[in-house]
């Protein structure tokens, strides 16, 4: 975990830190090297098997599922749902 944390902290200084492109790049990274401690994890007996993104923008929620190793992920399966704010607020009201 310490190695992954250091990689994430170092990446947080990149000019596009916090963007979706940066997050995808971080989750596909093999820094400091491909193996059991890289964020995209590779071991002989185990590896990362998928990557799921949840994006909330304005009134829309998107979920994108990428099957397989994150470093080899392509476009993935995408679902988009509207957020019904009024329904959510009504449930919280006393
Ligand atoms: Zn990988």
Overall description:
The protein has 3 helices and 3 strands, in the order H-H-E-E-E-H. It is of the alpha+beta class and 94 residues long. It has one domain (2-82). A 3-stranded antiparallel sheet has the order 1-2-3, with no helix packed on it. Strand 1 (50-57) and strand 2 (60-67) form a beta hairpin. The protein is globular. The protein starts with a helix and ends with a helix. The protein binds zinc ion.
List the helices and strands and how they pair.
Blueprint: H1 2-11, H2 20-27, E1 50-57, E2 60-67, E3 77-82, H3 85-92
Antiparallel strand pairs: 1-2, 2-3
The chain binds zinc ion (ZN).
- SSE order in H/E notation? HHEEEH
Distance between the termini: 42 Å
What percent of residues are in strands? 15-25%
Bound molecules: zinc ion
Total domain count: 1
The rounded Rg comes to 17 Å
Spatial arrangement of strands, main beta sheet: 1-2-3
Q: Which regions are unreliable across 5 or more consecutive residues at pLDDT < 50? A: none
Features:
alpha+beta, binds zinc ion, 94 residues
Summarize the structure.
With 94 residues, this protein is an alpha+beta fold.
